């Protein structure tokens, strides 16, 4: 059966408004495979090899390309970064990254972000969006943690499902990454992740399982070794009887760029379907050969060490994913050139794919992801009464626009943090920094704005003296290692949890002179905030990594146009030891790559803190509002295969607001699970006095553990506890079944 999906996208070109046609025919996998098989039968060996092999990192029009088969109308498929927007090119939106989507705890916004992202990828002619990332934030310092959906597997799974569903609804292929146990930057090209089978399934694999359920087109195998074998050469992961295929994955497996560390036949026979980028790269401790070259895969097929049927299967999987989303008809051609990110050269057609709707969505997510960590009752504090403000100080380098000519991957951190650095970063060209949005808002209402837009520890408090309010901006950043820079001594992973550039001292110096100090934190993850109880600090907004519309989104929250509803998708504790994991920075012995032993098993973040009676400064799922909510009427009804949990949320305050009710499950003791695990969330918008019944359903798998002996999800017998509340520790209703 063919379903006709109709979508339309309005895209701005450099000079005029153009409409990109996003009509496509969605096919079933069976229909797509029938077409793919028929095409494979017509291909020569060279054409087949060309479809599974990157054309070379430095010749590629996109971040990755394979060769076209013009005689059959098959384009050179374009695979491109990044998970938060098209890069490196111009005329695109800088969407908020995955961690911001997670902070909204809103499936609606997660999916809308996927749709908008993919409209821009499609508009640029990109076949495969290299995202979403779903690597659990196992350690808070992990360099690329912000690309994914935080520290909980269920939240990552829902983020992955919604994002992929959104992306593929516009006919763009998504790529679930990085498979698997890709949780730190140090030694990533070959570290040996030692993860037991149960932990693997319940924590790191779970988001990939949800991706398969979203019919994801492709999965990217990671740089590291898993269980002693490179992920891209690991049949237990990607082979015919490996995890992905066991669970019904029908698309193709593509290597991360340079993640093929073994021979062409090793990789192909293990289950790798496409190699990228197609040439030798040498970065930080390894030569990568992939299918190197095209010649070696060809000779492996000719010699029989890769069976011809296996090569056919590789090609069929790639083409089936392409046919399934109807990319064989009416798909835009590539109109940019990643080799010239400045837009130069004749291959850059300078097509802008931005739209007002995308800008509005970025702003909405920026505001919805902001987490109000502290607010004093009544004035001062938030929201600000703009009409009454006469004198405002804005302090800190983080309020400023960053250097927009800082390589292609945001490696400077000399202004506001909207996203981390590396291949998951995006174009910053249209960033509206806090200073611009705030200054316009306050001066527009007649206030006098004083600034100190550096982290100078004397000038900051001087600017704050005698002001009605001082708004201090501080930040911390991390990113991808590899070919990217080491930023301020941080090799991808952060060195520590401190705010950068003496941020904490700046906050404390300002608070020492101003009784109405409001702190805005832009960060890729948890930071140490020893000053949160200082009474002169009347409000703290953890604005995270909000993307290009950072300034307008923040104004919405500070003025109360948007009532904050963001929740932290990780816990904020004072030190790394509270999290129970470390980043392994020492090399392995005698040389080469270290073992990273996932001995904490299921106890990551709040699960570890709950199990060890550690009280974080702010717990997973925490976030305040300008109104208050009351919970009541918990009801639990059971069937053989599911549990229905219902309850009522009432806005018992005076302004409209969105509550994020969360459902945590406590397993029977014998199950060996953490004290509680997230199993549901919702975003409920309520006017003052209004209430709504919320229903959450637990499917059988969500009440199961992964049982290694039987290799299956098994629901333990015994009594389960139900915790419903406003965070992982603010439990308002208790029940059991
Ligand atoms: C495609 O070809 C493969 C390999 O021969 C076969 O297993 C599969 O059933 C075929 N699919 C369809 C839909 O024809
Ligand atoms: C690790 O490898 C061993 C030996 O091949 C295998 O028995 C075991 O199932 C693997 N573990 C996982 C989690 O894949
Ligand atoms: C995935 O594809 C199958 C078969 O084509 C379909 O039944 C199912 O609804 C799809 N799932 C989603 C989430 O789109
Ligand atoms: C959009 O593309 C579809 C499929 O290629 C085609 O049938 C349709 O006529 C196109 N619509 C417009 C408005 O160009
Ligand atoms: C695109 O813009 C760049 C930079 O302004 C310019 O050098 C180039 O010629 C433009 N390309 C086209 C096709 O207009
Ligand atoms: C703030 O806005 C005023 C009025 O437009 C302008 O004069 C001033 O330069 C702005 N300050 C900053 C730091 O942008
Ligand atoms: C709060 O600010 C006032 C100045 O307005 C200062 O005298 C006092 O010491 C500050 N308190 C703290 C705890 O910093
Ligand atoms: C990892 O830790 C477990 C549990 O402590 C231990 O059994 C295993 O040998 C360790 N593996 C490595 C490679 O150190
Ligand atoms: C709203 O409900 C909460 C939780 O029951 C309660 O603590 C708070 O006092 C209530 N607020 C008002 C204004 O009634």
TrEMBL record:
Membership in a protein family: Belongs to the glycosyl hydrolase 3 family.
Class in the EC hierarchy, top level: hydrolase
Organism: Mycena metata
Hydrolase listed as a keyword: yes
Record-level GO BP terms: cellulose catabolic process
Signal sequence region: 1-18
Enzyme Commission number, as recorded: 3.2.1.21
Swiss-Prot/TrEMBL keywords: Carbohydrate metabolism, Cellulose degradation, Glycoprotein, Glycosidase, Hydrolase, Polysaccharide degradation, Signal
Example of a GO MF term: beta-glucosidase activity
Name the UniProt record assigns to this protein: beta-glucosidase
One Pfam assignment: Glyco_hydro_3
């Amino acid at each position: 059966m063919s379903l006709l999906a109709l979508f339309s996208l309005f895209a701005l070109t450099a000079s005029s408004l153009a409409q990109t046609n996003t009509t496509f025919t969605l096919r079933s996998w069976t229909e797509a495979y029938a077409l793919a098989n028929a095409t494979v039968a017509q291909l020569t060996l060279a054409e087949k090899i060309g479809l599974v092999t990157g054309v070379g990192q430095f010749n590629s029009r996109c971040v990755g390309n394979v060769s076209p088969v013009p005689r059959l109308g098959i384009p050179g498929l374009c695979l491109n970064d990044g998970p938060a927007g098209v890069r490196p090119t111009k005329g695109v939106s800088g969407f908020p990254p995955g961690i911001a989507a997670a902070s909204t705890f809103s499936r609606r916004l997660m999916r809308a972000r996927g749709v908008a992202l993919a409209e821009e990828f499609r508009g640029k002619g990109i076949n495969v969006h290299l995202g979403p990332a779903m690597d659990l934030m196992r350690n808070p310092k992990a360099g690329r943690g912000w690309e994914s959906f935080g520290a909980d597997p269920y939240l990552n799974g829902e983020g992955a499902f919604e994002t992929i569903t959104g992306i593929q609804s516009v006919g763009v292929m998504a790529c679930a990454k990085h498979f698997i146990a890709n949780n730190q930057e140090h030694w990533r090209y070959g570290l040996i992740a030692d993860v037991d089978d149960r932990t693997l399934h319940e924590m790191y694999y779970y988001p990939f399982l949800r991706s398969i359920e979203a019919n994801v087109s492709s999965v990217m195998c990671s740089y590291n070794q898993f269980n002693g074998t490179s992920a891209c050469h690991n049949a237990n992961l990607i082979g015919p009887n490996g995890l992905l295929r066991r669970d019904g994955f029908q698309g193709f497996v593509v290597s991360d760029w340079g993640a093929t560390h073994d021979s062409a036949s090793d990789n192909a026979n293990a289950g790798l379907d496409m190699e990228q980028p197609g040439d030798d790269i040498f970065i930080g401790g390894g030569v990568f050969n992939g299918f190197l070259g095209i010649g070696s895969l060809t000779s492996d097929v000719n010699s029989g060490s890769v069976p011809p049927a296996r090569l056919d299967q590789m090609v069929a999987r790639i083409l089936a994913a392409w046919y399934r989303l109807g990319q064989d008809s009416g798909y835009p051609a590539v109109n940019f050139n990643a080799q010239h990110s400045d837009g130069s050269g004749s291959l850059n057609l300078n097509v802008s794919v931005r739209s007002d709707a995308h800008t509005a969505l970025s702003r909405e997510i920026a505001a919805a992801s902001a987490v109000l960590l502290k607010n004093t009752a009544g004035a001062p504090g938030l929201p600000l009464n703009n009409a009454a403000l006469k004198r405002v100080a804005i302090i800190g380098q983080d309020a400023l626009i960053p250097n927009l000519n800082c390589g292609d991957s945001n490696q400077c951190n000399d202004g506001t943090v909207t996203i981390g650095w590396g291949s998951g970063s995006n174009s910053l060209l249209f960033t509206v920094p806090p200073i611009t949005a705030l200054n316009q808002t306050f001066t527009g209402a007649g206030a006098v704005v004083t600034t100190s837009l550096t982290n100078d520890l004397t000038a900051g408090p001087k600017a704050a003296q005698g002001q009605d309010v001082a708004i201090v901006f501080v930040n911390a950043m991390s990113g991808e290692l590899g070919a990217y820079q080491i930023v301020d001594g941080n090799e991808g992973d952060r060195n520590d949890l401190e705010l950068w550039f003496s941020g904490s001292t700046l906050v404390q110096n300002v608070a020492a002179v101003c009784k109405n100090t409001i702190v805005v934190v832009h960060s890729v993850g948890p930071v140490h905030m020893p000053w949160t109880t200082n009474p002169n600090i009347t409000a703290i907004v953890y604005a995270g990594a909000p993307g290009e519309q950072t300034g307008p989104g923040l104004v919405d929250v500070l003025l109360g146009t948007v009532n904050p509803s963001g929740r932290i998708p990780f816990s904020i504790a004072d030190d790394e030891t509270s999290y129970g994991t470390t980043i392994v920075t020492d090399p392995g012995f005698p040389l080469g790559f270290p073992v990273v032993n996932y001995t904490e098993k299921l106890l990551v973040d709040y699960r570890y803190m709950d199990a060890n009676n550690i009280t974080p400064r702010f717990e997973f799922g925490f976030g305040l509002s300008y109104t208050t909510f009351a919970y009541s009427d918990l009801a639990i009804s059971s069937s053989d295969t599911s549990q229905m949990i219902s309850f009522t949320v009432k806005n018992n305050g005076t302004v409209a607001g969105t509550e994020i009710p969360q459902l945590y499950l406590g397993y029977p003791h014998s199950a060996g699970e953490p004290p509680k695990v997230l199993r549901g969330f919702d975003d409920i918008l309520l006017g003052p006095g209004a209430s709504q019944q919320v229903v959450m359903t637990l499917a059988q798998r969500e009440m199961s553990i992964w049982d290694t002996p039987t290799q299956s999800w098994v629901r333990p017998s015994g009594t389960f506890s139900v915790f419903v509340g406003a965070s992982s520790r603010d439990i308002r209703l208790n029940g059991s079944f």
